[in-house]
Each structure stands twice: as C-alpha cells, then as structure tokens.
Amino acid sequence: MRRLLLAGMLLLAPVAAQAKLPADPLASPMWQRLGGTLFGDDTVRFDDRVKVVFPGIAEDQHSFPVSVDARGIKGVRRIILFADLNPIPLAVDFTPEGAQPFLATRIKLDQRTPVRAAVQLEDGSWLVSGGWIDAAGGGCSAPPASRVKGDWAEHLGEVRGVALRGGDGTHVRLAFRHPMDTGFVANIPTYNLQDVALTGAGGKHYGTMRIEASVAEDPSITVITDAAVGEDIVLRGSDTNGIRYDGSIAVRAAPADAAVAAR
Amino acid sequence: MIGRRAVLAGLAGAAAAPAFAQPLAYRIMPEPVAAGLWVVRGADAPIAMANGGAIANITILATDAGTVLIDCGPSLRYGKALKAAAETLTGKPVVRVYLTHLHPDHVYGAAAFAPAVLAATPQLATLLKSEGPGFSDGMYRLLGDWMRGTEFTAPGTILSADSETFGTRRLRLLPLTGHSPADLAILDEATGTLIAGDLVFHDRAPSTPHADLAKWRAALTTLKALGHTRVVPGHGPIDPTPNAAIDQTRDWLDWVETTLRAAVAAGEDNVAAGNTPIPPRFGAMQAARYELQRSVSHLYPALEAELLPRIDTR
C-alpha cells in the first residue's frame, strides 16, 4: 500500500524544475540533478552518434576503460565524460581544439552506474549518450595500489607515451604515474592529475583537458590529432599540488603490420 | 509485515508464487568419461545468477578406497549437492577433494567437506591463506542466495608426494604454475586421463586474472609430454584427444599476448584493444570477447610500462 502511494506521488509530482532536460533513456536516479549541474540551461539531447564504448564487464572497478568517439559529429567543441553514481561524477572535461573529437581513458566505478559522455556543439547545446555498467563497489574508496606499495611519490611526474600516425590520424597515447587520490580513503585528501594540454608544431593546440580524481590511478589517455610524422607534440601537465607533467613525443608512422586496425 | 509481504506476493501474480517457494538447487549431472571417472560439466559461461557460479568442470573418481573429487564448485550449496551425487554414484564416501587452484568457482564448495579431506599443494595452501577469503564479497555480489552459508574453508591436507594411491588407482600429482601462481594438474594413470584444472581450457576462452603467460606456456609443454590419452579441461567440453585442447589453449594465449603487445605498441587504448576482432579459428570458443576484455584489464598496464618509452622531462 505504501509503495503504491509513493508511486502515485511520483507520477503527480511536478518535474518541470529541469524542463529542458529530456527524459533519461537510462532512467538514472541522478539524471535530473546531475543534468542541471552539468548543463545548466543549455539545450540537451540524447544522440547515439556520441559513441561511448566500454567493455561488457567491469573486471576492475578501480580501472574501467571508456572511449568517447564523436568523430561522426561536426563542430564538437567540448567533451565531458561522467558516471552518474560516482561520488565524483565528472571524470574528464576535454576541449579538443585542433584534436579530433575522440577521447579514451580509464575511470573508477564506485557502484553500478550509467557511464556517459556529453559533447557540446558550437551553438552551446549538448548531445549525450552512454549506458549502464555493473560494478563491484568501492572503486573510488579503496586505496590506490601505489599508496599500498608506498612508492607513489617516487614516480610523480613520470609519463610514458607514443604518437603514431595511422589511417585515421595520429593516435597520442599517454600513460601517467599518479595515485589519483579521491579524498575518500583514510584521511588522504584529494590529490590528482588535473590539467593536461598538448600542442604541436607552430603552437597548434591538440586539446586541453581538466581531469578529476575519478579517473583511475596511473591515468592513461588517448587522443587523436592530425599531427604529421616527425612533428613534435609537446605535453604540459600539472597535478593539484603543482607537480609538473611535461614532456614531448615525436610522431612516428604506425607500423604497417599493426594488429589492431583503425576503428 | 507478514501481511504486506503476502499482499505484494499476491499482486505479483499466481505464476510468480512458485519462485518464492522454490529453493535454489544445483543439478549435478555426472557424465561418464572413462572407467570409474565422471565429469560434472560446468556452464561454459561467466559466473552468473543463471548458472549459480557452476562454471568449472568437476571430476569424480571411483576407487576401492573411496570417492575422489577434483575441485568442488563455487558454493557450500554446490559442495553439498556434489558430495551427495558423487557418493550415490559410486556408493562410497568422499575421501579426498583435490583443489587445483585458488579461484572460487573451483574451491568455494570446500565448506561442504571435512578439512582433512581437502588437499592442496603447499604453494596453493599458502596462497589460499592470503587470497582465499578475499573472493567472498565478489561471489556473494554476483550470486546472492546461491552463496548462502558459504565461507571459505582452507585445506587440511598438504600434498608433499608426487602421487597418491587410492585402492589400486594411482594419481600422479603435477604442481605447475601459469594460470595462477599455484596450479595442480592430475594424471589418472588407470585411464590415461589428464585432469588439467584451469591450465587447459577447451572451446571456452582461457581467463587470465592471475596468469603468468610465459609460465603457463611452459606448463602446457610439460602437460603435452605426459603421454595421456584424453584431457578434462577446467572449463569446456572433454577433449577425447591428448593435445587438441592443450594446443588451443596455447594458441589463444599466444594470440592474446601478440595482440595486446601490438595494440600497446600502436598506441591503442584499452577499449579498442578489447574490441579487437576475434579470429575465425576461435569462432566456436565461448566467452571469447568477455575473456579478451578481462585480459586487457589484467595485462595492459604492465605491457604499457614495458613497451612505451618515457616521454617526460622529469
């Protein structure tokens, strides 16, 4: 009886508070509230051309790979990646500038949640897509492996990477060493890699991103640029304590026999 | 409270009522493989509510000295059902349960047996002490009531000899590593049957959460030289030949490693690597995509650390 009453109240309750947000196809309990926070008064639409791709299983809730591919959409000026039910929902806020509208990284999952991306067009409106993923709890509230091991401080500032020119552009893969503390573990405050910017020849911008602590420990990031073979891509990065993550990669031609074909 | 629940059940409809009354029950169906040797086939699928976690193959051996089991399933409920079915089948009590490795789909049924009956190599016993209880949360989350009452139970017998004999049946014990840090394969000399644990998969993609691929390949080389006639894999159908499943397992591991190394070298992200097309020769393999994506999670970070150069100015 109580359940029936509650259901009735929900049906009758006004939902006009966020009138501009369309109904959520994923029926997330956080959609209205999160949508209001992330998009304000901007127009929001759901659009499957925003391809949010992730594995069918969250094998490791501390490190769940996601890629966002909006290359089928013209005029993308910003991409945000978020997980509704994470305590830190936003993971990455990416402004591609001269890079293609594509982003891949690994995030933490604190429970079963929608994982989504939204891309903002030139007119300020947003296109949203995503899906649910089941996950064991605690991805955001377990200590990072490098904290357990104790060697996190020795590797701050380290970045590995490669930039390969292939059929669909130059894939720039960056693998940072950082504990990415969420602030939810044993009185260790939030501490994360925060700003990453890439530039190419002549100062051409290949994207800037703001990274939150919900990105997995030892963040890995892939972007796709139009950089030419031989061009130097310069990385400028910093964390929330001002530790620098600077470096550079010379673009090479992708090996012809690469087993993984361009998507 | 009772009233409200009854009302809710009523609302759900008469058809749903039996679901409340029916306790979860595993169907243990031993299939004859060789003289005095049966296998209870696991579902060739990931651990899921639909299969109660009964995804591993369990071997039952009849001997004059009693019934021998190799692995015991995912839960207390499974272990109890297995014990009853095996003892009915052979007419003799279970005197030995070998644990092949630490993974819960193989050893969490141990709670149904007396500790002295449960046997593991020293390496596995040590590993289970630290890692064994840790699988509990994940198993309860995935399997819910199937797991009721299940607590991890440590083996009470540590295996030191390279064989054990029950009546006239001699079992050769082969401690190896590769699928996990402590694997046990067993050769039933009476029938030439190799019970390989998860060192061998068959038409079901191998899983790699604790794998060392180089050691796994070495273990497969060892197994291939045993002179056995058939193989009971840890997952998938029985291989009536000596080498088909062993070769397939190696082929998959080689392909996964080659593919992931190439993906890392090509700067591919984890999602793209996990979505690499599965070659047609693995077309009949169950759970191939699922296990490839798991393997990306297990193996990719170390490969990136190995293969990608430092680019920072630190």
Instruction: Give start-end ranges of low-pLDDT stretches of chain B.
Output: 1-19
Looking at the structure, what is the overall shape of chain A?
globular
Any guess at the CATH architecture of chain A?
Answer: Sandwich
CATH architecture assignment name of chain B: 4-Layer Sandwich
Strand order of the largest sheet of chain A: 1-8-7-4-5-12-11-14-15
Radius of gyration of chain A equals: 20 Å
The arrangement of helices and strands of chain A along the chain is HHEEEEEEEEHEEEEEEEE
Q: How far do the termini of chain B sit from each other?
A: 65 Å
Helix content estimate of chain A: under 10%
> For the largest interface in this structure, which chains are involved and how many residues does each contribute?
A-B, 50 and 41 residues
Spatial order of the strands forming the largest sheet of chain B: 1-2-3-4-5-6-7
Helix content of chain B: 25-40%
The CATH superfamily of chain A is identified as SoxY domain
Query: What structural class should be given to the helix and strand makeup of chain A?
Result: mainly beta
Q: What is the count of DSSP helices of chain B, taking H or I runs of 4+ residues?
A: 10
Main beta sheet of chain B = 7 strands, mixed
Going by CATH, what is the homologous superfamily of chain B?
Ribonuclease Z/Hydroxyacylglutathione hydrolase-like
Domain Ig-like SoxY (chain A): 38-140
Signal peptide (chain A): 1-19
Protein name (chain A): Quinoprotein dehydrogenase-associated SoxYZ-like carrier
Organism (chain A): Sphingomonas immobilis
Task: Describe what you observe in this structure.
The complex is a heterodimer of chains A (263) and B (314). Chain A is 10% helix and 38% strand. Chain A has 263 residues and is mostly beta strands. In chain A, strand 4 (76-83) and strand 5 form a beta hairpin. The longest helix of chain A has 11 residues, at 2-12. Chain A starts with a helix and ends in a 10-residue tail after the last strand. By secondary structure, chain B is of the alpha/beta class. Chain B has a single domain, classed as 4-Layer Sandwich (Metallo-beta-lactamase, Chain A), CATH 3.60.15.10. Helix content of chain B is 36%, strand content 17%. Chain B has helices at 2-12, 17-21, 76-90, 104-107, 122-131, 136-143, 213-224, 244-265, 270-274, 288-307; strands spanning 30-34, 37-40, 58-63, 66-70, 94-98, 118-120, 157-158, 163-166, 169-176, 183-188, 193-195, 230-232. Chain B has a seven-stranded mixed beta sheet. A five-stranded mixed beta sheet of chain B has the order 8-9-10-11-12. In chain B, strand 5 (94-98), helix 4 (104-107) and strand 6 form a beta-alpha-beta unit. Chain B is globular. Chain B starts with a helix and ends in a 7-residue tail after the last helix. The model of chain B is unreliable at 1-19 (pLDDT under 50). At the A-B interface, strand 3, strand 6, strand 9, strand 10 and strand 15 of A face helix 1, helix 6, helix 8, helix 9 and helix 10 of B.
